[in-house]
Structures are given as structure tokens and as C-alpha cells.
Amino acid sequence: MRYAVGGGKRLRGFLVLETAALFGLPPERAISAAAAVECLHAYSLVHDDLPCMDDDDLRRGQPTVHVKWDEATAVLAGDALQTLAFELLCDPDLGSAETRIALVRGLAVASGAEGMVLGQALDIAAESASAPLTLDQITRLQAGKTGALIRWSAEAGAVIAGADAAPLRAYATALGLAFQIADDILDETGDEAQTGKRLHKDADAGKATFVSLLGLEGARQRACDLVAEAESHLAPYGDTAKTLIDAARFVIARDS
Amino acid sequence: MRYAVGGGKRLRGFLVLETAALFGLPPERAISAAAAVECLHAYSLVHDDLPCMDDDDLRRGQPTVHVKWDEATAVLAGDALQTLAFELLCDPDLGSAETRIALVRGLAVASGAEGMVLGQALDIAAESASAPLTLDQITRLQAGKTGALIRWSAEAGAVIAGADAAPLRAYATALGLAFQIADDILDETGDEAQTGKRLHKDADAGKATFVSLLGLEGARQRACDLVAEAESHLAPYGDTAKTLIDAARFVIARDS
Q1: Which pathway features in its UniProt record (chains A, B) (predicted)?
Q2: Which residue in chain B has the smallest CA separation from A78?
């Protein structure tokens, strides 16, 4: 792959750069959008790790921000990272003002109260629900929590290029769900030193996951099917989409 | 005044609508920008009120979000309010895509790590500083914490109208500082039932304020001088600026 994904950790920025490359755009035309979505994703991790949220002390192999500094710093750092994401999308290298407003609007919708934040709120609500979530409910939760931002990332290259984003949207929808299923499999079978974060938290909390609902083999099969579906949506791009196909395969093969 | 400021509580949205009116724009041309800055300001209050930040239980006469619901909800509600602010600035009623990108960029700079969040971080650092802040330090802190957003609000009308924002920028810089001095005076002399928030917190914590540094009378005089300065910057607009002059006078006369 041309850019290091770094485990699953830089997937969003990678998708921005790779989908831009699909339309012949050099990295400098898309790098601010890639940086923006990584800032947005990083803010969500810093806030999700807070004691009042998921209460995690380890992230990417490092102490989380509130452990290393303090909670007020983690709240403010997350807030400023979100702001920086939108500032980065104003970079003229991304294209016309119309293009940049489309990116701003898309990122806001993907990450706000009907996207990522909704997914996180549903996830927190699930912890105190009387019954574990069903497969439909958990699929909807994850479509918001991780899916919306992955979709924005994969569409960004087409938006910057002024091209039709529909095939990439379909690719990213399947990829996002495969990514989350792979995360649940890693949470069950992975190694904390490799992943750089605490594992088995959902299972220990009695929360439904794709693994608890489908079984380990069922979850693996579903992830494989989704990757095949994701690949099929890239057919219009022929060989130029090879890196995006590799990325989809990597998402379910990764160990971190 | 044409729009209710509601104590000092809706000052930012009011400034957007009134500066737009200065250039003959009807409220519907500016309302999304007014709503955006109110969302941005509300997010900052919800996060600032958290136990790990200012730990306030009363705001606008109501229990704060983490008291009424819980801390996770307050973090997420603040996050989503910030996102909504940027989504609102994509509204085509605000003007061309160039205009809207200018508003997005300006709001991001005003509210991010070199604006409002910096001011809040300096404020928190001041709590554990070995010596109280000097007048220069506290002026710089407030220029970020409250000044940057007030300035963006007053410039917004000119940006939407495609007019020179320099006089309004100068007006807002003086107004923002007067507003903060008036806040410090209210914190010393105000009534909790009227203001709808806890008072005397800074003095009780031994933190420097404009009142502790200038004395009550000195602070009042400084605020009056700043309001006169703010008014002088509106001279180019003649009588059409009457409401903005009234607003500046109200800022130091308010009791909430």
C-alpha cells in the first residue's frame, strides 16, 4: 500500500488519499481532508476514553490523554481537535469553495447528532439496557459510530475530484461494517500489546457484539462476505482500485 | 432592541443579526450564522460546566446538563453542538460558498486551540498558578475565552454582506473586553437568582479578576471607557448603528 494504514488506526485518512488517487489527484490535493478526518477521529477517541464514557487508560499503546494529563485537558484537546478538522477543510488546495463546503457539510452530518455522536450515545445507552442489542440494532449503532466517518472518507476523493461518489459510498458502507466486525473479533481474540488498547471490555460488560450474536466463525464469514461486496463496488475503476481492494482485505486480516 | 438579548446570554447571535441589519440584510439571510454561534457558545458552556472543568451545577437558572442527565451526555451534547455549528454555516441562505467558507474558517480560528479553547486552557492553568494573573495576562486570556467569539459574531454581518469588517472588528474587540469586565463585576455584586448561575466562584478560588486587579470602581470606569470606545468605532454607520450602540451600553448595565 502506498500509505501506511498503521493497523486499523489511520484507515480514514488513508481512504481519503487513496480515493483521491483513484481520480488522478496527487496527495497534496487531498492531504488536508485526510488530516481533517484523522483529527475528527482522534477527538472522538480522546472523548470516548474519558472516565465518564468508556474509561480507557490505554490507546495506540500509550496512556490515554486524561491519564497522561488530566480530564479537563482531554475535554479541551478533543474540542480543539474537532475545531481543527473543520479549519483544515477550508484549505484552498482541496478545490473550489463549493467543494470545500460540501466536505464541511458532509463531515458535520457524518460526525454529529445523527452520525458518530448518535452511535456513541446508542452505545452508552446499550450498557444500561435491560436486554442485549439485536443484530439490527447493533448494525445501526455501528453505522453511526464508525460507519459514517469511514463513508465520508471514502467519498472525499470523489468530492474533491468532482466525480460520482456512489460506487465509493457503497464500497465504504460494506467496508465500515466489515471493519467493525473485525474490531469485535479482535476484541475477542486479539493481543493487547499488538492492538495497543484494552480488550475484552464489551464481553466483560455483557454487551452484545457481532461475535456474541453471530459466533466467532459466523462473524468471520460475515466480514469476508462484506469485503467481497466492498470489492465488487470497485469494479468500475478496474486496476486503479487495487490499493482500495487491498485495504478492504487488510481490514479483516489485521491483528491491531 | 429588535431582538431580545436575554441578559448577556444571547449576545453573540444578536450581534450577528444586528450587524447584518446594518448592511440592510433581513434576519433570514443571517439567522443560520446566529444559530451557529449560539450552538458553539452553548457547547463551550456545557463542557465548561463539567465537574473536571468549572464544576457548575446551575446555568441560565436550570441544572447544568451533567446534573440533569449525566457527564457522558454532557460531553456528547457539547460535541454535537459544536458539529451543528459548522453544519449550520453551510446554509446557502448565508451567501456564496466563498462567504460560507470564510465564516467556517473564521469560526474555527475563533473557537479553536488559538482562540476560545486556548482561553479556557489558560483559565484552568491560572487556578494552579503560583501567583494570580496580571492585568495583561487576564486580558489576553479573556480575549481568547470570550473575545474571539464575540468578534466573529460582530464581523459576521459584514462577511455575509461582503462589506469591510474592520470597524465592526474594532467595535467588538472593545465590546468583548467590556463584557468580560461586566461579568467580573456581576460575579462580585450580582444576584444568583437574577443571573441564573453560581457567583463569587473566582473570588472564592483566589483567582485574579478585573475587579480584584482594578477595584470595583476602577473596573466600572474601565468598562465605561471601553463602551465609549466601542461606540466610536460605529461612527461610519451613523444612525443605523443605534441598536449596536444600545447593545454596548446594555452590556455594562445588565444585571444578568
Answers
A1: Isoprenoid biosynthesis; geranylgeranyl diphosphate biosynthesis; geranylgeranyl diphosphate from farnesyl diphosphate and isopentenyl diphosphate: step 1/1
A2: B79
